[in-house]
Amino acid sequence: MNPSLFIAGRLSGNRANSFSRAITVIAAASVAIGLTVMIVTMAVVTGFQVEITNKVAGFGSHIRIEKYDTNNSFEMVPISLRQTYYPSFGEGKGIRHIQMFGVKAGLIKVDEEIQGVVLKGIGRDYDWSFFQDKMIEGRHILLPDSGISNEVMISKTLSSMLKINLQDELRMFFLTSDNVQPRGRKFQVCGIYETGMEELDNMFVIGDIGHIQKLNGWEEDHVSGFEVLIDDFNQLESITQYVDSVIPYDQSAVSIKQSYPQIFDWLSLQDTNALIIIILMLFVSGVTMISTLLIVVFENASTIGILKALGGNNTLIRKTFTILVTKIVLIGIIIGDIIGVGLCLLQQHFSIIKLPQESYYMSEVPIMLHIWHIILLNLVIFATGLLVMWLTSVAIAKISPIKTIRNN
To answer: Band of the pLDDT at 281, cuts 50, 70, 90?
Structure first.
């Protein structure tokens, strides 16, 4: 029989009514609670980042190509569709899709209500996958092979604000460079969408790009720019650099992080919050384990003294307590993984916890579980346990067998 395993089993509380047993249960519970909080924190933070990134990128693309211009308004210098990179950048570059777009600022007037909006024009190459689960009523725009569609999609926010319903007509007014008076256009609402991003929902009306070309006096092959969708968001910076190197010198590639810096700065702040929570949980779990082991050490000081008197050295004692710590940590890790992953799966499938959408851009707490996050947290917890063992070994080395036996 391995003496270290036997002694560790006795110290961990195999005896009935042992105070050590209660202490080790508390230590394992501390590890489990700490790991549960860390798993849930990582899943929620990752979920927020992925969901918000997908919403912003789905509405406005990952990369936008536009004419190089110091003017930051919605009156953009047009680009011709005759580009070497359009309609395809080619395969193997991480680029999933490229599509034309046009934008023009305008006003919606309904009775006495006036709302400033931006008409976003799209063509037949538009990728509708983002709007598949965002449509509240109706359908997306049907663009004809010839001519211009008068259908538009508006957000649920604008629909409620201006009291515009599905199939209603609305009139938008635009300022043009060749006309002092605003020019009006009549549209019919074919669909109402909701992204949850208030900044976008309050601003954009989706329509046919042909209206923008006519209002601006552009040729049929002129657009405001191109939207580029990529496969892997983690490659955003490198793909943006690649796109910038391919396009002509008088055009610029703007990533989504550059277009919406305030949103991505807020998302980066969530990483800091998650790191603080993880450090606090590690500190609490570590202090609890140190306290537990010190109590076990001093409660069993006489046993340790006898072992040393019988020839047991500090290595044997350290090995015994290493087994004890490993047992406590592994029990805590298993329980923590089960509870943490279980809570995440419950929220993921049943959406138990709701959120105010106007503040958090979504109506429920998002969850995104990554197996490597769980493995990393388990390793960090285990490493913390070993560090605790090393700190506790200082107290073990100072125990004098003569004093403990005499006191006993």
So the answer is: confident
Cα separation, 212 vs 231, whole angstroms: 29
Residue 258 included in any domain: no
- Please give the Cα distance from 276 to 10 (Å, whole number): 37
- Tell me which residue range forms the domain holding 371: 3-55+264-407
Instruction: Return the structure tokens found at 406.
Output: 């005499």
The answer on 96 and 47 residing in a single domain is no
Assess whether 81 and 223 both reside in one domain. yes
Look at residue 268 and tell me if it is in a domain: yes
CA-CA-CA-CA dihedral for 152, 156, 160, 163, to nearest 10 = 20
- Tell me the average pLDDT of the chain: 85
- What whole-number distance in Å separates Cα of residue 23 and Cα of residue 11? 10
Count how many domains the chain has: 2
Residue 404's pLDDT is what?
A: 55
Residue holding tokens 């230590």? 27
Strand partners, 65: 226, 253
pTM of the predicted structure, to 2 decimals: 0.81
Maximum pairwise Cα distance, the chain: 104
Confidence of residue 16 (pLDDT cuts 50, 70, 90): very low
- Does any domain span residue 256? no
20: pLDDT strictly greater than 80: no
Under the banding of pLDDT at 50, 70 and 90, the label for residue 60 is confident
pLDDT at residue 91 in the model? 63
Integer Cα distance of 364 and 367 in angstroms: 9
Q: Are residues 243 and 284 in the same domain?
A: no
Task: Please indicate, yes or no, if residue 327 is contained in any of the structural domains.
Answer: yes
In the numeric block, the tokens 């009156």 are attached to: 75
Residues 358 and 225 in one domain: no
Distance CA 211, CA 184 (A): 11
